[in-house]
Amino acid sequence: MHWTPIVRLFGMLLMLYSPSFLPSIGLSLYYEDEQWPVFVLSLAVCLLAGLLTWFPVRDKSSEISVREGYFVVSFFWILLGAVSSLPFLLSLHLDFTDAMFESMSGFTGTGATVITGLDDLPRSLLYHRQQIQWLGGMGIIVLAVAVLPLLGIGGMQLYKAEASGVAKHEKITPRIAETARSLWIIYVGLTIACALAYWGAGMQPFDAIGHSLSTIATGGFSTHDASLAYYDSPLIETIAIVFMIAGGTNFALHFIALRNRSLRTYSRDAEFRGYILILLLTTILITITLVGTGAHQTTGSALRTSVFQVVSVMTSTGFVTENFANWPLYAPLVMALIAYVGGCAGSTSGGIKVLRIILLSKLGVRQLFQMAHPQAVSVIKLGRRSIPDELLFSIWGFYTLFIVTSLVLTLAMMGAGLDLVSAFGAVTATITLVGPGLGDVAADFSNVNAAVKWLGIFGMLVGRLEVFTLLILFLPAYWRN
Question: 167, 349 in Cβ contact below 8 A?
């Protein structure tokens, strides 16, 4: 492990991140909420820490390896979480555990919270919560990859560590910096369109901007305790559904559709078709269940609730208009299962991802076919493209580690004092990045103990960094030269 370039890179990234506190300073001055000293101090700490880290090794630049890239990505997320927790520590006087949980929940796009009374919080602090989700949605590391090449640092190793699963084998444009910039242009464009739509639907400008940051990032933080139920508006919910689906779609697909200027790009993509099919089938099932059990008196009411909650959970956004943990029969478990499925690869959502689920299903069917026809040669295809066995084994390994980690975390949560339903709900809420859980964590994590919160933080990191990037650091062979 070459520590000098890693330390230099950490310093540069901290300095690049420090201006992110400026919008909150401006909002604090505009709304006169007296929080600007908190954000000035946070900016100063971040900038000074970056400067002191970078300056001693400023002249010792070199490329980092892929192995070192995993370390940089994992630990920079932790470092960012710590830096961004400063406003929660200084303004709300939360203890370090709660502040770190809130910050990591934002950066990982989880949306689970330990804060209540959001409607009464200072606007600048509310904006800070929304912004850290937005920055984490596409990955602050990808943003750095778009900028660092201009400073003489290549970004390919970081991109490989940050990119999700199958998508990391494809590049939209020949150069990695161009790829990152293309993704961010689309990301910003969708955010602006979402904010304008919310504003046109009746939200105040502050809420429209805040919720657009959260929607496109599929994060789920809101500026109100009641989330989008605060507005009780079918139009606002419809806008949220459209942009949550967009956030849960592979951003490479958005790029190709924009370049080709054709919506047919989406219908031709096997993963996107599977994504929409799962959303439709689950919505129908939940609607029938809510009407059949009398939980909703009319089909229209049941459909409105189910389509919003299904999209919110599967895209791991976590906005709520109704507590699905209280739904009858199997409905809460169905919601947990689609949270594990998640959105598309290359999106801001969490979960295993639809592409992996499709390929795992095809792999299972192939095994059954080969049991019936041992001499047959069967090739798994996605659309017209053959999928190599090496990639299938990688996906199978990812799935195994994801499920095993979930089970181990569930046991650990139970050991920390939660009952089975609450432990399962807490793990589902964090490792899939969905936010709302079941049992004691159905609404928030404010009433659970510190051990559960730290286990939740670990689950968020595993889910956001897609298992391999984080868990490889626990492998003894990783640390051997």
Answer: no
User: For the chain, how many residues are written?
Assistant: 481
Q: Tell me what pLDDT residue 164 has.
A: 40
How far is residue 301's CA from residue 296's CA, in Å, rounded to a whole number?
Answer: 6
CA distance 418 to 198: 38
Check: CB of residue 166 under 8 Å from CB of residue 395: yes
Residue 141's SS3 state is helix
Both tokens assigned to 33: 């909420």
Count of C-beta atoms within a 10 Å radius of residue 477: 6
List the one residue out of 69, 79, 192 whose CA is nearest residue 142. Answer: 69
pLDDT tens per residue, range 432-460: 999 888 888 988 898 899 999 999 999 99
Helix, strand, coil shares of the chain, percent, nearest 5, are: 70, 0, 30
CA separation for the pair 70, 379 (Å, rounded): 32
Closest CA to 317 of 355, 272, 279: 279
Distance in angstroms (rounded) separating the CA atoms of residues 424 and 241: 26
- Which helix (H) or strand (E) segment holds residue 281: the answer is helix 270-292
Backbone angles phi, psi at 381, to 5 degrees: -125, 150
CA 31 to CA 277: how far, in whole Å? Answer: 45
Whether the per-residue pLDDT at 296 is higher than 70: the answer is yes
Of all residues in the chain, the percent with pLDDT exceeding 90 is: 52
In one letter, which amino acid is 442? A
Segment 40-64 shows an average pLDDT of 87
How far, in Å, CA of 248 to CA of 275, rounded? 9
Average pLDDT over residues 3-18: 87
* Average pLDDT of the residues in 303-313: 95
User: Please, are residues 79 and 90 in contact by the beta-carbon 8 Å criterion?
Assistant: no
Q: Is the pLDDT of residue 169 over 60?
A: no
Task: With residue 351 as reference, give the H or E element that holds it.
Answer: none
pTM over 0.85: yes
Taking the C-alpha atoms of residue 17 and residue 329, their distance in angstroms, rounded to an integer, is: 46
Contact call for residues 341 and 352 (beta carbons, < 8 A) = yes
pLDDT digit string (tens) for 371-399? 888 888 788 888 777 888 888 888 888 89
Cβ atoms of residues 309 and 320 within 8 Å: yes
Instruction: Kindly state the tokens that stand for 150.
Output: 């201009």
Which residues are CB-neighbours of 134 under 8 A, at least 6 positions away? 191, 213, 214, 216, 217, 219
Q: What is the CA radius of gyration of the chain?
A: 22
First to last CA, the chain: 7
pLDDT in tens, 250-289: 888 888 888 888 888 898 888 899 999 999 999 999 999 9
The two structure tokens encoding residue 272: 């996107």
